Amino acid sequence: MVGAGAALADEVGLTKLTMGLLADRLGVRTPSLYKHVAGQDDLIRRIAALALDETADAVGSAVQGRAGSDALAAAARAFRAFVVEHPGRYAATIGQEPSGPDDPLTTSGERLLGAFTAVLRGYEIEESDVDHALRLLRSLCHGFATLEAAHAFQWSTDVDKSFDWLVAFADRGLRAM
């Protein structure tokens, strides 16, 4: 059911996802959904955990066997592709706070951070700066991908070239550390 909710969020947008719409999609009555989730908020948290897991899988697979700028480019492209292909489920991840160490959001989020932390091992970044570097990469990739998913790049310059430029810029900055 969470997978169906995630797919529906991608299709209609997270803000338009409702329990009633999901029930219609699944061909069940809305009360039947409450056997699986506690409500709308629980559904969105579960979609967020699913999205973080899927993003971690995509980024982790992309960076395997790569280092430095190759790993950075692969991670950034995988992240971007996930967000553009799954804008609704990715939107569910924004602003979600894990409730504790056993929360699936914690585990999923740590997996995604782990994939990006592996990318940073290819750079000479002080341990005390790793969190800052992770925030930089998240901000760059998240910002670009969510703008692209929202069709916010209206001018004629090739979006892929702009993304390559962003990755190269981040690479130069990380190397300068």
Supply database-style keywords.
single chain, 177 residues, mainly alpha, 9 helices, globular
Polypeptide structure, described:
- With 177 residues, the protein is mainly alpha-helical.
- The chain is built from 9 helices and no strands.
- α5 packs across α9.
- The mean pLDDT is 96.
- The proportion of strand residues reads under 5%
What does the radius of gyration come to? Answer: 18 Å
Written as H for each helix and E for each strand, in order along the chain, the element string is HHHHHHHHH
Helix content: over 70%
Largest sheet: none
How far apart are the termini?
Answer: 45 Å
The average pLDDT value, as a whole number, equals 96
Which stretches are low in confidence, meaning pLDDT under 50 for 5 or more residues running? none
Shape: globular
Q: SS-based structural class?
A: mainly alpha
Q: Quick one: how many beta strands?
A: 0
Total number of helices: 9
Describe the SSE topology.
Elements: H1 2-12, H2 19-26, H3 30-33, H4 40-63, H5 68-85, H6 87-91, H7 104-120, H8 130-149, H9 159-176
Summarize it.
With 177 residues, this protein is an all-alpha fold. The protein contains 9 helices and no strands. The mean pLDDT is 96.
